[in-house]
């Protein structure tokens, strides 16, 4: 028979201490479990309080989007304002350049009021004595009839459609003596790049048919004026009307025709010198 071994199995001894700090169990013979620190854990109520609500999140999103849209609109407005300012500056500079380059000249008699519609920046020239009534000086081209010439800023334009510049019948002067002609003009050049052109110059006569009113008509050819490409060029020539046109009569004027393709006449001064 197998040997039977018997050992004493006495009851285990467990001590339970109840004190003010809580319950403590001391199981003799077994190590105690370490105490658990619960300070690192929070309750659900505390967690909910630490996070924003859904409505708060939506409100923050709306605020951010509104701020972004406002910033983008301000940026677009600033770009548009800068563009408009740049265009205005360019236009102002161009107008200033045009005014300096093409400042209109208006010659008026003494005491004559400035005509309505005279552009800003125009140069007003007044003579001591009335120009229009002077026997030795033709009136300015601003007073000449524009039957066959087109207004062009500070002068007139001559081309195939408006081919002739001549004074009016009542503006013709005595044909005796020597007259000095000064023409200030601008010529764009020929159709094929020519640097010069020819503007035919004739005398202007008083002509009247029987049963018809008197009028200004083309007379004898004086010369071909050579006009050169460029702006505000000047040419001068002396004319003895009765020598170049024996049929001119007692009074005369000039009859200027357009070169090819066009000519802008800014000013004409026709003065008797002898």
Notes on the protein architecture:
- It is a single chain.
- This protein is α+β, with helices and mostly antiparallel strands and 274 residues long.
- It is rod-shaped and about 140 Å long.
- The strands form four sheets. It has a five-stranded antiparallel beta sheet with strand order 5-6-14-9-12. Strands 7, 8, 10, 11 and 13 form a five-stranded antiparallel beta sheet that branches.
- It is built from three helices and 14 strands.
- The model has no long low-confidence stretch (mean pLDDT 81).
- It has helices at residues 44-50, 54-101, 241-244, and strands spanning 14-19, 22-27, 105-108, 123-126, 150-151, 156-159, 164-165, 173-174, 179-187, 196-207, 215-228, 230-239, 251-257, 262-272.
- It has two domains: 44-100; 132-272, Jelly Rolls.
Order of helices and strands: EEHHEEEEEEEEEEHEE
Quote the beta fraction: 25-35%
Structural class label: alpha+beta
By DSSP (H or I, 4+ residues per run), the number of helices equals 3
Sum up the overall morphology in one term.
rod-shaped
SS elements, strand count: 14
Poorly predicted regions: none
Q: What strand line-up does the widest sheet have?
A: 5-6-14-9-12
Report the helical percentage.
Answer: 10-25%
- Please state the CA-atom Rg, rounded to the nearest Å: 53 Å
Note the main sheet: 5 strands, antiparallel
Q: Whole-number average pLDDT? A: 81
CATH topology of the largest domain: Jelly Rolls
Task: Give the domain tally.
Answer: 2
The CATH architecture term of the largest domain is Sandwich
């Amino acid at each position: 028979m197998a040997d039977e071994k018997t050992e004493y199995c006495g009851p285990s001894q467990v001590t339970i201490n109840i004190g003010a700090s809580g319950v403590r169990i001391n199981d003799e013979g077994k190590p105690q479990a370490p105490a658990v620190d619960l300070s690192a854990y929070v309750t659900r109520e505390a967690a909910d309080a630490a996070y924003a609500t859904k409505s708060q999140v939506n409100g923050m999103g709306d605020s951010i989007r509104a701020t972004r849209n406002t910033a983008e609109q301000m940026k677009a407005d600033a770009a548009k304002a800068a563009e408009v300012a740049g265009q205005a500056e360019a236009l102002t500079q161009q107008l200033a350049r045009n005014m300096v380059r093409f400042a209109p000249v208006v010659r008026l008699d003494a005491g004559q009021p400035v005509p309505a519609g005279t552009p800003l920046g125009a140069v007003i020239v007044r003579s001591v004595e009335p120009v229009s009534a002077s026997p030795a000086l033709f009136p300015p081209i601003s007073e000449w009839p524009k039957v066959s010439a087109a207004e062009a800023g500070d002068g007139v334009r001559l081309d195939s459609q408006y081919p002739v510049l001549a004074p009016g019948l009542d503006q013709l002067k005595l044909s005796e003596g020597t007259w000095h002609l000064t023409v200030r003009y601008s010529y764009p050049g020929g159709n094929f790049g020519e640097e010069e052109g020819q503007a035919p110059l004739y005398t202007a006569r008083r002509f009247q048919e029987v049963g018809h009113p008197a009028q200004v008509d083309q007379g004898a050819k004086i010369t071909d004026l050579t006009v050169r490409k460029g702006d505000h060029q000047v040419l001068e020539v002396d004319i003895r009307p009765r020598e170049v046109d024996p049929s001119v009569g007692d009074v005369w004027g000039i009859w200027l025709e357009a070169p090819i393709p066009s000519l802008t006449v800014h000013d004409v001064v026709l003065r008797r010198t002898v």
